[in-house]
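Researcher: Following up on the earlier apo prediction. This time include the ligand. It's zinc ion, with the SMILES given after the sequence.
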Amino acid sequence: MKITINGEEETIEKDSLTIIELLTHKKVDMPEMVSVEYNGEMLDREKFDTQAVTDGDKVEFLYFMGGGQ
Amino acid sequence: MTLNDQQVERYSRHILLQDVGLSGQEKILNAKVLIVGTGGLGAPAALYLAAAGVGTLGIIDGDKVDMSNLQRQVIHFTPDLDKAKVQSAKEKIALINPDVKVNAIEDLFLAHNAMDILKDYDFVIDGTDNFPAKFLINDACVMAKKPFSHGGVLRFDGQTMTHVPGEACYRCIFDDLPPSNAVPSCSQAGILGAIAGMLGTIQAAEALKFIIGKGDLLTNRLQMFDALKMKFREVKFKKRATCKVCGENPVITELKDYEQPVCDIRQK
Ligand SMILES: [Zn+2]
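Model: Understood. Below is the ligand-bound prediction.
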């Protein structure tokens, strides 16, 4: 499938992956640090292991950033 | 109010801008902005907002100036070491622009005082360095219907968004505090000083745009940049129906101070 991750198109040799599987595939080892937007909607964290990502989907990984001082 | 001759000269480069003009400058001189934290983000934001002539600047910080702050917290100077940050900032603001009234609050921004402090201001700048404070500012501003600018930096990266009442909030993206050991703070991870300056000045510009009512604010958009590659990127997002504070059935209806039990992630 071809999907868009953080604005860049990528080909993944799978027909479908859950969000959690995609995070693992992208080597994001701490998914609790990431919020996910799936096709323009912020995705509830409880759906990370059920929401399927398929051909043509757009996914954004948004990272916590807490600094400021 | 009418600008006197000195003010017309001082703010002439604003007044020349079609989108500001005399009436915009008058709005700025009448505006009240609260800056939470006078550190890496709050320092540049305070300097620019003071120079711009924001009539009242509230600054709240419970910390004293430390040697390791001087690399980026540009409102504090070497002779200010060990001075309360709000005192140091107040002195600089007075030197930059005597038009500005400063409310210096040497304290932490916490659940018990948040609403009382916020109520006097038109716009809030989050210049804090920790998640308990960032979530508290979001929740308090949503509840008090105050617009605010969120800012976060880490190493060479920055992110910022602007909330206005009725539009998406910080929790619409980041539902709740991350596990306390998962995200490093600046004191653990480091920050290139100039990057805090980039973000703090974006926040100041958002405050000024809000005050003059011109342009497009960073609402429903998260602006992110990687200064190592000097690439900017924005992600549009929407209000989330399940958001804990601004969603259809908010579960957060009163403020609380969140715990961050480990390491040195503290409000400073
Ligand atoms: Zn929200």
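Model: Residues B 168-169, 171-172, 239-240, 243, 245-246 surround zinc ion (CB under 6 Å).
Researcher: Noted. I'll compare it with the apo version next.
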